[in-house]
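Lab notebook, design round three. We kept the backbone fixed and only want residue identities now. Task for the bench partner: fill in a sequence for the structure below.
Input structure tokens:
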């Protein structure tokens, strides 16, 4: 049998069932079916990539070598198309930033997982969902890009159950969690507020401890306060639940805000992004390291349901990378 970065390459004639057995025995499976990694698929995924065997860093927890070839393999078995490789490759490298604390996220007994947000034209080109079910099922690009990143952490980084990944419970986001920021809304885009330009193509990786649905206090969000007060309460509660109340330092907070609620907030005089961040910081009572460390991101479909993505309490900073 041929190999690619030390992993099996199956023949075109290999049955689906045999391919699954081969990949499972090679400890490459996350438990879901995998696309058989034929040479044709692997060559197509890596085509046009220069320096495909060059090391881009060592990925915790077992410090496997990140190369374009290694990440391409994960993209193939995850079901990605070749155009998605640069996104997964950039995200894999972003995980290595010291402030992201991948070693802690990958090895904790807590339920930390990696979430990936894609910004700008690249998200629209690849068809990454930023509408209904943005962080749920139904869109191949979201599912496969997020899964390829998780498989990279598992198969390159070595974060396998009882080996590197010691999570007591784990969470579904360890399979995949990838979504896009919407390209419309009343607030500056995430890339714009971080100096990359209003419509830059970029990715952000986040080490999160889960997701929580949040509703406006009055049901429909008649006022900015009614929308944001439950969010601040959720952030305060997470500080206690995650054990961060025992620590002096605070990190970041991420809020996924549907367009309808973002527009409702902005209709009230003076309620821009800066005021939203200030309100949550002041109302939350020191829930983040600074007001600017609270990140509302406009995404999702119709409705008034928000999603709070608490950053892992063990300590992690979001990492933004331009593509």
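Proposed sequence:
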């Amino acid at each position: 049998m041929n190999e690619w970065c030390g992993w099996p390459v199956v023949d075109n004639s290999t049955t689906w069932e045999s391919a699954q057995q081969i990949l499972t025995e090679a400890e490459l499976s996350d438990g879901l079916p995998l696309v058989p990694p034929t040479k044709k698929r692997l060559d197509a995924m890596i085509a046009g990539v220069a320096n495909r065997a060059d090391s881009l860093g060592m990925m915790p927890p077992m410090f496997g070598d990140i190369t374009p070839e290694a990440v391409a393999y994960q993209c193939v078995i995850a079901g990605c198309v070749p155009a998605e490789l640069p996104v997964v490759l950039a995200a894999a490298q972003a995980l290595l930033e010291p402030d992201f604390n991948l070693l802690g996220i990958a090895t904790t007994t807590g339920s930390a997982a990696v979430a990936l947000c894609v910004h700008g034209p690249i998200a629209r080109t690849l068809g990454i969902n930023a509408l209904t079910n943005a962080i749920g099922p139904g869109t191949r690009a979201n599912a496969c890009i997020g899964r390829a990143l998780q498989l990279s952490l598992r198969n390159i980084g070595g974060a396998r159950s009882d080996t590197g990944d010691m999570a007591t419970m784990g969470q579904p986001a360890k399979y995949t969690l990838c979504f896009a920021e919407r390209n419309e809304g009343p607030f500056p885009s995430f890339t714009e507020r971080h100096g990359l330009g209003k419509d830059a193509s970029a990715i952000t990786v986040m080490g999160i401890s889960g997701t929580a649905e949040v509703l406006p206090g009055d049901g429909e969000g008649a006022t900015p306060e009614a929308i944001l007060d439950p969010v601040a309460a959720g952030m305060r509660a997470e500080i206690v639940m995650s054990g961060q109340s025992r620590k002096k330092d605070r990190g970041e907070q991420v809020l996924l805000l549907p367009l309808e609620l973002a527009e409702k907030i902005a209709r009230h005089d003076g309620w821009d992004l800066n005021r939203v961040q200030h309100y949550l910081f002041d109302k939350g009572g020191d829930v983040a390291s600074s007001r600017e460390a609270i990140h509302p991101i406009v995404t999702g479909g119709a409705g008034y349901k928000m999603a709070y993505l608490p950053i892992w309490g063990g300590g992690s900073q979001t990492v933004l990378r331009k593509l």
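Keep this in mind before ordering anything: The first helix runs from residue 16 to 25.
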